[in-house]
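Researcher: Here's a chain I'd like modeled. Treat it as a single chain, no partners, no ligands.
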Amino acid sequence: MNEHLEPIFKIFLSGLEETEIDYWVYGGIAIAAVAGKFIRKNDDVDIFVKEADIDSARSILESRCYDQGLVWNECQPFEKGGFSRRKLEVRKNQSRKEILSVVPVFLETNEATLVFRNGVKKYPLDILERVKREISGNVFYSPSDSYIRKIFKDTFQGKSNWRNRNEIIEDARVVLTPDEFRQCFGSN
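Model: Modeled as a single isolated chain. Structure tokens:
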């Protein structure tokens, strides 16, 4: 399961490590880390890097995509809450589905800000504590379990048709308490 993501773990995330660019995996792969195993097929790996490092991350994507038969793209930035959020994506040639998404985390004096389509979310700086994870031989870093849970709770209801999306329901079963799950999804 998720073998299509191995180039992301082995080539891109290791490239960020080699160049000392800190990154944090969030989203479905991070939720799998909380579970200790892949719980479903994941389309992509979502990461955030410090906003000051996004151009360096872009250089890593640029240099490593060609050798792997992958293409990278920088999406048009969007404005939300006074922030201009960039997004870098990697796709397999001829595919419309991204297999890696890189977004910035904006650092301020006492907080870290993530900008999502459904809003601007502010977190304490300790969201940037890196936890080493391993799933199916793939090593990566993410925020702590509590922040993975918080990011999920802050974002999943902003996704279209979220109550009927199996991947959201599966992820929610891992990170939400049983009471929170019932409040959001009923007896699903």
